[in-house]
Structures are given as structure tokens and as C-alpha cells.
Amino acid sequence: MEKVIKVKNLSRHFKVHKRKSGLKESLKSVFHREYELVKAVDNVSFEINQGEFVGFIGPNGAGKTTTLKMLSGLLYPTSGEVDVLGYFPFDKKHDFLRQISLVMGQKNQLFWDLPAEETFKLIKKIYDIPDGEYNKTVNELIELLDVTDIVQKQVRKMSLGQRMKCEFIASLIYKPKVLFLDEPTIGLDVVMQKKLREFIKEYNRKYKTTIILTSHYMEDVKELCERVIIIDKGKIGYDGSLEILIKKYAKSKRITLVFIKPVKKKDLMPYGRIIKYERYKVTFEIPKSDISDVASKLLKDFDVDDVDISEISIEEIVRQIFTNHKI
Amino acid sequence: MLTISKYFYITKLAIIRMSAYPTRFWGAILADLIIFLFVYFLWTHLYLGKTSVNGYTLKMMITYYLITLLIGSFTLVRGYANRISKDIKSGDASLHFIKPFQYKWVLFADSIGWAIPPFLILLGIVLLLYGIQFQYLLPPHNLLLFSLSAILGTILNFLIISTAGTIAFWTTTTGGFISLLTRFSAMLGGSLVPLSFFPQHIQAVLNYLPFKYTHYVSLEIYLGNLKGPEELFTMGIQLLWILIFLIISKFIWNKGYKAYEAVNG
Amino acid sequence: MKQLMVKYISYYIERIKYPMMEALEYRADIISLTFTSYAYMLIQLIFITVVVNQFGSIGDWGLDDMIILFASGQFILLATISIFINVWDNTETDIEKGNLDFYLLKPINVLFNYSTRGFVLFQNLPSLMFPVILLYFARDSIIFSPAIFILYLVSIFMSMTIFYSIIVILGSLSFWITDSRYFKLILFGLWKSAALYPADIYPNWALPIFLIIIPIGLLAYAPSYFLVFGFNWQLYAVQVFVTIIFSFGAVFIWNKGIKKYSSASS
């Protein structure tokens, strides 16, 4: 399998000016500034093959976007090696740029004042795409994304969902080998998110484009990626199959109960593992298979005012991974 | 009903806002100084071999432009016409909750606030030039009368400019037209060149128009071009024009505001 | 190489097609725009007329000469900004907000792509008519010969290049300084002064400053000098020199800025 992305001991550090509030501090900062070293990406290594669909997940500020920017060539690494399609991305050689594409959620490459299809035509010119191939590709994409009536509209008059669809078309006209998606579904409504996910999945299946997706939505990754890389505070906590990860960590659910009368902790302990306890409120972690049994038992045995059953959040999984150092 | 202290507060706010953008503040002052530098080049060149033209010596000319620079942000400010017309066109809440009278004076307090910081800097520069005995800077003939006249001119100018902005009550595309009006108003007030340089017949007409009383007459008083009782008489005319515009302004605003409320309710 | 030029030129043509059609749509805005610039130009013209009538001339420049100087300057400033409106208006904001990312990842020169975005020349054609009409009225002062005419056009083109370079340099300051957009105010100051007068009025020490270092004084002066007084090889050499220095300087500073932008963005 051809290795498309090779990253070894990659790091990116930022010097951030430590801001303190107050007039005295502001005056001081005119003369002397204190800097803090932020390790946005800290000694990260991984390899990605052609056609893989990899999801980078982690909380906000984990280093996902920074990693993506180094892979696409927008940022210069502080140390380590990064190789994409045989190129050092930061050089931004034109031959490299022709083979990659970047879509950033809520950020536009489409020209605001032009109709979307005008931007498509300009991209055709930039990437030297022959007429026949251009027409075929664009029409196919327009149909797949169902935007036939929209592409003549000016981008500034489109809704966010319509814009993102056209952004995708613009990024795929020249059939890049590697597609970087940075939080592409952010800000979209649930229906639109689903539509876009379906499109990306289908596109990856059909064209075997290598796709790197960053997101803090678990849904994005669950639907699309076989492989997931969990990153937090600049370090990789997990790199492997998503299925295995879910099986291992998301096999429990959380059930939270609010009681009418206070309940003693020891009375609750037989029902399952208690994560959090207050006199009127308790949170259990129960295996998925048992949850309806335990829930109905609890509702029968106690005066319950409110019940909430939820998945273990990705933040919790990430936290567990980093505290347990298991995998 | 807004009290006096609220007006001071608005002025203070404007000052704070202006100092929040240091590059904008200093950029504007530097730009004005560059313009003055070229004015200096131009007139020193033009006056080679001449002493007095149209009653102005070179020293008077340079002084004229320097003092125009100093008080211009008060007596020749133009921007509020467009701001008022924008507020009217956009149906801004500011007009709803503040009745026309207060709205105008809120803007006036605002304009004063914005004018004060550059004024202070330029005053510092003028005093410095005076201190080092810059040969082209003449002292004021009568500082008190000049200051009073400048204050009257400021009020009159604002009334004229704010009245111009009310066109927006009755027409839609007003941006360019208002620009034209306010630019002309400033020019006829003496922003470009002393009015004595305009042809005689135009000067005669200008005596019956309010424009020269916003800025030019204050400078005439500064330079001592008016004899004795003429000074007080001129300031009287300034007051007269202020009264006239207060009446015109009130009338137009009431009419316009009624039309505005009918649309925006 | 030739293929590259063809690509860039055809891209540019494609880029301006739509704004051209758009210009015809938004007529009301054009009227307002035109009014404002006519107002400004008219006032300046009155000033020049009043002064020249009183003093006979400014330096060696009579009324017609001054009108040619003024018209040339206004044309250069307005046309350059209209063509490169994006660089004029948005550079500072785009740099501060990190909007240049997509430009960096396209296989086309970043400055070129950025500069070609936004084109309001057609919207400003009515405003640009005013200087052209002024030139017609002042035609008595013009030396009519094809060589001078071509020289004038070349000089105008060089001045526009210089002004474009100045705009790029000013915008590039945002790579290093926040809030640098207000340096434009200083440019306005120079525009209202240095671009209006012939170099005749400068004391000797000011000549190198406003003709070479901050060459706003050169922009209108050079082409109108040729049109009114004929060819002058020193002035021509100065203009060529300034054009080269400033255009290379602009590209150099911009590229340095892009490097800084890439190392800082997060």
C-alpha cells in the first residue's frame, strides 16, 4: 500500500505572550513581555495510506488543526519530519498543491461576490483542467450534492449549508489525491451534517481519495472513519480502528437520576458503578446491555423526579485514554 | 431628558474611543501635518517677491492655515451629515428613544469629544511653534474674542451639517449629494483658502450666506482683519445665524421625524 | 514560460468578467460614488483656479498645466485603486483574520491571485471621465505628438505601478504591525498635498523625499511634465528607477510577510 502521509516526531511550539489584566500590567508589558511556550503539537508520529479515511479527534485546542496545517503546508514544523505525497508540504511546490485540497468549516475559499460556478471556472483555470474533464467532474459533483439550482447564486447570498456544499465542489474539481477536512460540519444543522457526511463517504469510496478529517463531533468520525487518531494537548493518545475503540470504551452508558427525597449512597451501590453522587442526584456507569434493566429497577425502587441516559462523551473517552494509558 | 452631565459623559466616551486606536489618532494628525507642510511649501513659493496679496501677507497666510488646522475639527467637521442620514435611512433605534432635539445634541457632544484629543495635540504643537518663535506664526489679535467666535462657529457649523443630513427623511440615495453639500460648505467657510481670494462677486454673495460664519470670521478676528466694532458685529451675525438655524433645524426635524415615525412606528 | 503568462492572463480576464457585468447592475451605487468623487475633484479644481488666477502660475505651471497635473494625478490614484480594490481595502483585515490560508494553497502566485480579486474599474468609469474631460479642456497646453503621447501613457503606467507597489507595501505592514490600516491616513494626507503640486514648489531638501523615498510627489508630476514640457531624461530616469525599486520592493516585502504569516498562524 502506498504511504501517502509520513509523519515522524512532529512538533509545533508557539510562543504566546502571557497577558495579564490591569493597568499596571498593561504598562509593564510595553517594556517587558513574558512569553509562555505552548506545545500545540508534541512529538507526534503516524503514517497514512492511499485511500484511507482517518479521523483526528480531540477536544478544542488539542492540536488537530495545527497538525492539519502542517500537513497541508500552512505551518512550518518546529521539529520532526512531515512528508505528504513525497513532498515537504511547507515548500508549497505547485505540483504538490495540485494534489491536495483543504476545506475548513465556516471558512470560505469561494469568492464572496461571485456566483459559485464562476469560482469553479477560475479554479479550472488555476489547475489547468481541460474543458471536457472539467464539465464532467463539475456536473457530477453538482448532482451528487444536489446544488443544481444554487450554483449560479452569489456565495454571499447562500446559506451556510449551501456554501459548504459548494466549497466541497470547489475543493474536488481537480480530483486531489489527499483531502484535508478541518471541522467541515461545524455550524451546520443536523440534516445538512448528515447529507455532507454521506457525500464524503461516497466520494471516498468511489475515488479512493485519502481523507483526513478533524472534528470534535463524535458523529462525524463514527459515520466516516475506520481509523481514528485521538489527540489531546498535542499528543496522540490512540491511533487505530474506531470499531475497537468504541467496543472498548463506549460499551457503557451513563444514567443520571434526580430523586424527590434524598437517597443514601449505600442504598444505590448495589445497582451499579457510581460515578457521581449527591443527596438528590446520582450518576451510574452501566454496561449498555444492562441499562434498560437497571433503569427500570431504579425507577421502581425509588421516587425518581428525572432520568437522563447518555453516551459516554468523547471527552470522557479521551480523558480515560490519557489517564489510563491503556490500549 | 438627557442632563448636561450625560452630554459630558458622551464627550468623554468619544475621547476614550479615539485614544483606543492610537495609529488612527496619530495617523490622522500626521496626515494633517503633512498637508500643512505642503501648504507651507506652496505659499512660501508663491509669495516669493511679493509682500501682500488680497490683504494677506505670507505670515498671515501660514498662520491662517495653521489655525485652520487647529480649530478645523470643530468648525469644519463634516462627517455627521452622513452619519445622520445613515441613521435615518436605517431606521436606527437611536432616533426612536431619543427625541430629535436630544439626538442632535448627543451627536454634538460626540463630535466635540472626537475633536478634543487632536485639538490638544495640535495646540501643543502650535504653542511649541510659538515658543520657538516660528516666524510665520502670528499671535492672535484678541484671544478672547477669537475663542468666543470659534465656539459660535462650531455650533453654527454643526447646525448646518446636521440639517444637511436631514435630507434623508425625504430622499433615498443621498450619500453623494450630502458629500457635495458638506464639502462646499467647508470650502465656503474658508477651509481651502481665505475667502478674500475668491472673486468679488462671490465674496459679496457669501456675506449673505451662513458659511463664512462657521470658520472664516473667527480667523479674520484672529488675524485682526476686522476693525474694532466690526468684530462684535460679526459675532452678532454668528449668533443670528445660529438662531436662524435653530429654528430651521427644529422645523425640519419635527417634520421629518413625523414622517419617520409614520414609516418606522 | 509563455504558457505560464497565458495562464495568468486568461485567469485575469476570467476574474474580471463577472465584476464587469455586476457593475451594470448596481447603478445607484455608482451614481453616489461618482457624485462623491466629482465633489472632491471640483473643490480641488476651484482651489487651483483661485490660486493660479491670483498668482499667475505655480512655479512654471500655468492654469492649463496645473489642470493637466491635477487630472493626471486623480486618474492614476483612482484607476489604480479601482483595479486593485481588494489590496486597498482588505489586506489588513485579511492578514489579521488569517484569511490568506486558501491563497497560499493554490498553485498560483499568491500576490497575483490576491491582487486580482475585486475589480471595480467599471463602476468608477464615470468618475474617471472627469480627469479625461479636464485633459481635453486643458489641451492647449499639451504638446501634440505621437511620441509624447506614448511617453505620457508609459509614464502613467509607471506611476500606477508605483502606486500599486505603495499600496502593497502599506498592506504588508499588517504582517508585522497590528492596526496598521491607519497608515493609509498618512497616504491620504500625501494624496491631498504632494499629488497636487509640481515639484517646483519643493525646497531642495524635500525633492528626494517626495520624489523618490515616498514618491507620491512623482506620480502626477512625471507624466504631466512630459505632456506639457516634453521629454526630460533625468525625470524619466528617476521615474524608471523608482518604478523598479518600488515594484521589486513590494514583492520582496510581501513575500517576507507571507513567511512571517506562515510561521505565526495557529
What descriptors fit this protein?
heterotrimer, A: about 325 residues, alpha/beta, Rossmann fold, Alpha-Beta Plaits, 2 domains, six-stranded mixed sheet, four-stranded antiparallel sheet, 12 helices, 13 strands, about 35% helix, globular, B: about 260 residues, mainly alpha, two-stranded antiparallel ribbon, 2 strands
**Proportion of helical residues of chain B:** over 70%
- Helicity of chain C, as a percent range: over 70%
| Rg estimate of chain C, integer Å | 19 Å
Please tally the β strands of chain B and state the result: 2
Mean pLDDT of chain B: 87
Strand-residue proportion of chain C: under 5%
Proportion of β residues of chain B?
A: under 5%
**Oligomer type:** heterotrimer
Characterization of the model:
The complex is a heterotrimer of chains A (327), B (265) and C (266). By secondary structure, chain A is α/β, with parallel strands linked by helices. Chain A has two domains: 3-247, P-loop containing nucleotide triphosphate hydrolases (Rossmann fold, 3-Layer(aba) Sandwich); 251-311, Alpha-Beta Plaits, CATH 3.30.70. Helices cover 37% and strands 30% of the residues of chain A. Chain A contains twelve helices and 13 strands. Chain A has helices at residues 23-31, 64-72, 94-97, 116-126, 131-145, 160-172, 190-207, 218-224, 242-249, 265-268, 291-301, 314-324, and strands at 3-17, 35-49, 53-57, 79-84, 100-104, 178-182, 210-215, 227-232, 235-241, 252-259, 273-277, 281-287, 304-311. In chain A, β11 (273-277) and β12 (281-287) form a beta hairpin. The two termini of chain A are 25 Å apart. The model of chain A has no long low-confidence stretch (mean pLDDT 86). Chain B is mainly alpha-helical. Chain B has one domain. Chain B has eleven helices and two strands; from the N terminus they run ααββααααααααα. A two-stranded antiparallel ribbon of chain B has the order 1-2. In chain B, β1 and β2 form a beta hairpin. Chain B is globular, with a radius of gyration of 19 Å. The mean pLDDT of chain B is 87. Chain C has helices spanning 2-25, 27-55, 63-83, 85-97, 101-104, 110-116, 125-137, 146-172, 183-191, 207-213, 216-229, 233-264. Chain C is globular and about 60 Å long. Chain C is built from twelve helices and no strands.
